[in-house]
Design goal:
By secondary structure, the protein is an alpha/beta fold. It is 42% helix and 13% strand. The structure holds nicotinamide-adenine-dinucleotide.
């Protein structure tokens, strides 16, 4: 089938590449000339495991092309996906300007029936607004009678596992308009998604409003599970229980399941923070309150401070003269996405208290430099006290303590002896509960996880550590 995807970000690039992999003829459009130039030259502007290989394969097979010309993409496609950003506005609501701008551009160029599929995460009613914008653009061209369908098909992929999530979805939510255009859209979407439904039917058909709300409800539910566990972790600390045992104890209940039950430094990323805020805002516009989601948000807000609070409780709030190492900058492993990453709260706070901070991330160093220099309002070269280093061991050289912010695989089983030799102090604040507290104790580290103070500490006998060099 002939497909256009507008937006070459995390969602757009994955959608375009995976649909090309299934044999479709795909044009991916972005207004960012630099981004398109990188893609046309064979590069990939984001880090997503497996994406580069798949993208190159389909580019070489001529099933996947990149352009800045939306006119060419609209002419080419039967189905046009909108996958542009919907960032939060000051009041928390989703900014729809990019989605509506794309709708207007489609209306300026379409000349026959199109299915316009909204993949961006948008508040209920956006499908109707896209339709109005399209109709008005067509009317301006004297094409008021030209038919089209606006479909909602929210995306549920996780960055870091995006290709697998797209290719093996739990479900495909498709919200259809009523009438003949809706029926025509159903036929095209059925064909497009047939490869995903061969084993069993994964498509869930519904009306547009329900599909739009399903996406927000899913993210709010997952965010709530994380905040619930973070709240519970504080209680675990207070009563001497181990949150990881509690996690396993409740996750094994088939009614609850294991996903999204990890206590930590709070959720970040491009979706949960903005989507929970947008949901609260949308409810308020209808005179309602999302009280559970409000609590989820406020727990998360405080949770991003937890590691800083622990550092201050240990060393005092004046951190001058201290050197601290940070492992992990991206909001989660396997991505370079720095949007709303806890590191953007923790690092400026440590710097403002006078600490010298060494930071390392296996993939997100460049993105982190961009994000932190925007947050701190100065270029990296002028950030006194902050050093970006290329290896985990470099980030613990001479430090008084290490803070773990992202659970990258390479941090799971580090060389603790080498670390002990490098570190000035042997203190680890583990914001992702990567290490066994009893093992840390036996290795001579002062260790603080999240909600793990009650962990039994006698499993490993203490042993002598090498002295710092
Ligand atoms: N990132 C995720 O994990 C994820 C998962 C599910 C859903 N979503 C949703 O998908 C949408 C896209 O998210 P993303 O993370 O891919 O965003 P992104 O910021 O990575 O990419 C958006 C792209 O759209 C381009 N763009 C903006 N306006 C344009 C226009 N008028 N014409 C052409 N291109 C334009 C931008 O240049 C950018 O490259 C958002 O609504 C987001 O909430 C994201």
């Amino acid at each position: 089938m002939k497909i256009a995807v507008v937006g070459a970000g995390y969602v757009g690039l994955v959608t375009a590449t995976c649909l090309a992999e299934l044999g479709n003829d795909v044009i991916c459009v972005d207004r960012d000339h630099g981004r398109v130039a990188v893609l046309q030259a064979g590069g990939v502007p984001i880090f997503e495991p497996g994406l580069e290989d798949l993208l190159q394969r389909n580019r070489h097979a001529d099933r996947l092309r990149f352009t800045t010309s939306i006119a060419a993409a609209v002419r080419h496609a039967e189905v046009i996906f909108i996958a542009v950003g919907t960032p939060p506005q000051e009041d928390g609501s989703a900014d729809l300007q990019h989605v509506l701008a794309v709708a207007a551009q489609i209306g300026q160029h379409m000349a026959d029936f199109k299915v316009v599929v909204n993949k961006s995460t948008v508040p209920v009613g956006t499908g109707g607004r896209v339709e109005q914008v399209l109709r008005s653009a067509l009317a301006d061209r004297g094409l008021a009678a030209l038919d089209f369908a606006v479909v909602s098909n929210p995306e549920f992929l996780k960055e870091g596992a995006a290709l697998d999530d797209f290719m093996r979805p739990d479900r495909i939510v498709i919200g259809l308009p009523t009438g003949d255009a809706g029926e025509a859209a159903r036929r095209l979407m059925t064909r497009l998604y047939a490869p995903f439904n061969r084993h069993h039917e994964r498509s869930l058909w519904m009306d547009v409003a329900s599909a739009e709300l399903t996406k927000y409800a899913a993210n709010a539910m997952l965010a709530t599970r994380i905040s619930f566990m973070n709240d519970m972790a504080h209680l675990a600390d207070a009563v001497g229980a181990d949150i990881d045992s509690v996690r396993r104890g409740i996750g094994s209940d088939s009614r609850i399941g294991h996903g999204f039950l990890y206590a930590g430094t709070g959720y970040g990323g491009s979706c949960f923070p903005k989507d929970t805020r947008a949901l609260i805002h949308e409810a308020a516009a209808h005179g309602l309150r999302m009280r559970v989601v409000e609590a989820t948000e406020s727990v998360n807000h405080e949770q991003k401070q937890v590691l800083v609070d622990r550092v201050c409780a240990h060393f005092g709030s004046d951190l001058r003269g201290l050197r601290l190492g940070v492992w992990g900058l991206a909001f989660k492993p396997n991505t370079d996405d720095m949007r709303d990453a806890p590191s953007r709260i923790v690092i400026p706070e440590l710097l403002s208290r006078g600490a010298e901070v060494l930071v390392h991330d296996p993939v997100a160093l460049n993105e982190a430099q961009r994000a932190l220099s925007a947050d701190l309002g100065r270029p990296v070269s002028e950030m006194d006290g902050l050093t970006f280093v290329e290896s985990p061991l470099d980030a613990v050289a001479g430090v008084d303590a290490l803070l773990v912010l992202t659970e990258w695989k390479c941090f799971h089983n580090p060389d603790f002896d080498a670390m002990a030799r490098c570190m000035r102090g042997r203190v680890i604040f583990d914001g992702r509960n990567l290490y066994d507290p009893a093992l840390m104790d036996s290795l001579g580290f002062v260790y603080q996880g999240i909600g793990r103070r009650g962990h039994h500490q006698a499993a490993h006998p203490a042993r002598e550590l090498p002295q710092p060099a």
